[in-house]
């Protein structure tokens, strides 16, 4: 799984950052509930 993330980060850094933003946002929603 980590290798896939590293590959995504090298191939599409912008998409990687967007993915982290969405992941962080979903975690915040779960913490609120």
Topology, element by element:
Elements (H helix, E strand, L loop, with lengths): L1 H10 L1 H20 L1
Sketch the major β-sheet. Answer: none
Count of spatially separate domains: 1
Low-confidence regions:
none
Separate helix tally? 2
Order of helices and strands: HH
Mean pLDDT: 83
- Distance between the first and last residues' Cα: 28 Å
Structural class by helix and strand composition: mainly alpha
Shape: elongated
| Beta-strand segment tally | 0
Give the helix proportion (percent range).
over 70%
- In percent terms, what proportion of residues is strand? under 5%
What is the CA-atom radius of gyration, in angstroms? 11 Å
Describe this entry's structure for a reader.
The chain has 33 residues and is mainly α. It has one domain. It contains two helices and no strands. It is elongated. The N and C termini lie far apart (28 Å).
Features:
33 residues; mainly alpha; 2 helices; 91% helix; elongated
How would you concisely characterize the structure shown here?
The protein has helices at residues 2-11, 13-32.
């Amino acid at each position: 799984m980590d290798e896939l993330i590293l590959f995504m980060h090298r191939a599409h850094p912008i998409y990687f950052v967007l993915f982290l933003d969405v992941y962080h946002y979903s975690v915040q929603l779960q913490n609120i509930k």
